[in-house]
Design goal:
The complex is a heterodimer of chains A (about 350) and B (about 170).
Chain A (H helix, E strand, L loop, with lengths): L2 E3 L6 E6 L5 E6 L7 H6 L1 H4 L3 E4 L5 E5 L8 H13 L6 E5 L4 E4 L2 E4 L11 H28 L7 E3 L2 E3 L5 E3 H10 L27 H5 L16 E6 L10 E2 L1 H5 L3 E7 L16 E6 L2 H10 L1 E2 L13 H12 L1 H25 L1
Chain B lengths: L19 E5 L2 E5 L7 H8 L18 E4 L2 E4 L12 E3 L13 H8 L9 H14 L5 H5 L10 H17 L3
Parallel strand pairs in B: 1-5
Antiparallel strand pairs in B: 1-2, 3-4, 3-5
Helix pairs in contact in B: 2-5
The chains are: A alpha+beta (about 350), B alpha+beta (about 170).
């Protein structure tokens, strides 16, 4: 019950049926276009982007990109739902696991782009999601045509139903099992023209709204893997500073403190992104309160570095000093700062 | 179920551990750890009620707002030793036991006052406190809520509170 077709040059379309009669459609990167056996193991997580249509008509959409308040889980799900002609109230959005593994010379994505960065989420997913939605829709239409002995081109879809010219309807859920047994489309099916969009471009409530207002939404700080320790870091406050003698015996004596580690001064040869920010001390404890208290008890006499004299107050002083030497560029800078402050104040007034 | 005999030689009953008894969202709990632990970390690390958020650790941002005996409080600077016998409500306790939402929670969804959602549990608690004091708040009253939102959800939060206030006025007490 599976097949791979070259839907585009870069992506493979996957269609699978589950033991419970659901239709599953997803995309897969060529590097992971594996055998059906391998795919069936952990089917939903290995397919991406993916949509699953349950026999009861529920549409489960896997959200691949991380949600950080930009609403990507809602946006990406609605792109699939749009092409599928799904009934939005019957759509459930579930997060997909992070698909990253060691590749040549660094981590590589196994499920495609899974990032929140630079407004790339929707553009990177746009054609994949539309193809997946449209492919699932086409399979359901073909399943209905087979059931009715009708020509698929005479059928249309709306709100999670296939509708025949004579008014007969079949719910997507009733067609899911049959559709999963059909061979997937040989060519990527046509997607809608933008003037036919019913969901894209319309306001939509956030799919996570209920979890957020009931306190169930797990933000990064709320993630908990059983037995994990809490780590807090005290960093050297001066750029380029080093850690002096560390006095941590009081902190170590605190009940619940598991380990105290030192972080060396950043090595400039290590590339940015993997280089530690600053020399420091990390306290690992059983709970956050203990970790925070132990951090307060750590004492270290850092070595002074040239930057340690720089403070918020010393910066304007040094600017004024240099403005006497080079008045024109410094005056321009002062005007820019004044204008920025004025715009911030205006925005604050407008918002509150 | 039959009760175990008091003198079963194989079982030594665990001695009653002294602690701080609190009622959180209508349930009884006993804190047996460090009495100076702030309520915030008891909720988050011990009970895993992570709707109470860690923000500034300075009682400024309001992300950790809770109700103590119905009054607004900041959980980040409220040590457990001060809470013996008190009743605490967090965002997880706003909805009814059957899952039906508080009018403010529903208004939040209806006005889409969500964005990233990190500050919203604290905002909701502050709004519950406001409506308890002023059932018919003006915009200035709402602006008196000093909880911070870095996404800038303030206009929608204001609309949501007004919507909930209108709904609650009509509801039977």
């Amino acid at each position: 019950m599976s097949g791979a077709h070259d839907a585009s040059r870069r992506r493979f379309l996957k269609v699978l049926g589950s033991a419970t009669g659901a239709l599953i459609v997803g995309m897969q990167l060529p590097a992971r276009a594996d055998t059906a056996d391998e795919l069936l193991g952990d089917v939903v997580l290995r397919l991406n982007p993916c949509v699953r249509i349950e026999p009861d008509g529920t549409v489960v959409i896997g959200a691949r990109d991380p949600e950080v308040g930009q609403g990507i889980r809602t946006a990406q799900a609605r792109i699939i739902a749009e092409e599928l002609d799904a009934d939005w109230p019957r759509v459930i959005v579930l997060p997909m696991d992070l698909g990253a593994e060691d590749g040549d010379g660094g981590p590589s994505w196994t499920l495609g782009h899974q990032e929140a960065r630079g407004s790339t989420g929707v553009p990177a997913a746009w054609s994949d999601l539309r193809t997946v939605g449209a492919s699932a829709r086409e399979l359901l239409v073909r399943a209905a045509a087979q059931r009715w002995g009708a020509d698929a081109s005479t059928l249309r879809t709306q709100l999670g139903k296939v509708i025949a010219r004579d008014g007969r309807t079949l719910d997507y859920g009733e067609l899911a099992a049959e559709a999963s047994a059909l061979p997937p489309p040989n060519v990527a099916p046509a997607v809608k023209s933008p003037d036919a969009f019913r969901l894209i471009g319309q306001d939509a409530g956030d799919v996570d709204a209920r979890d957020i207002v009931t306190g169930r939404q797990l933000h990064a700080i709320d993630q908990w893997r059983g037995g994990a320790l809490i780590a807090v870091i005290a960093r050297c406050p001066y750029p380029g500073g080093t850690l002096g003698n560390l006095h941590a015996s009081a902190a170590r004596a605190l009940k619940g403190v598991e380990q105290i580690l030192t972080i060396p001064k950043p090595d400039p040869s290590i590339p940015l992104g993997t280089r530690p920010l600053a020399a420091g001390v990390a306290v690992l404890a059983n709970d956050t309160w203990t970790a925070l208290r132990a951090r307060e008890l750590c004492r270290s006499n850092g070595h002074p570095v040239p930057w340690c004299k720089v403070t918020t107050r010393s910066l304007p002083r040094s600017m004024h000093a240099s403005s006497r030497r080079r008045p024109w560029p410094c005056a321009m800078m002062a005007i820019t700062i004044m204008r920025a402050n004025w715009r911030i104040a205006r925005c604050r007034r407008a918002i509150r | 179920m039959p009760r175990l005999p008091q003198t079963d030689p194989g079982i030594t009953p665990e001695p009653i551990r002294p602690g701080i008894d609190v009622v959180i969202n209508r349930e009884n709990f006993r804190h047996t750890g460090d009495p100076s632990m702030p309520l915030l970390w008891y909720l988050r690390d011990v009970l895993r009620l992570t709707g109470c958020k860690y923000g500034c650790d300075d009682a400024t941002c309001g992300a950790c707002s809770v109700l103590v005996d119905g009054k607004l409080a900041r959980a980040c600077e409220l040590p457990m030793q001060k809470l013996q016998g008190h009743r605490i409500t967090t965002v997880e306790g706003l909805a009814q036991a059957d899952g039906s939402l508080h009018p403010l929670q529903q208004a939040w969804i209806d006005e889409d006052a969500i964005l990233c959602g990190y500050c919203q549990p604290g905002m909701l608690i502050a709004a519950v406190d406001l409506l308890a004091r002023k059932p018919d708040p003006s915009d200035d009253d709402i602006d008196g809520i000093k909880n911070l939102c870095r996404c800038g959800s303030y206009p929608r939060v204001r609309a949501a509170i007004q919507r909930a206030a209108a709904k609650m006025k009509g509801a039977p007490k």
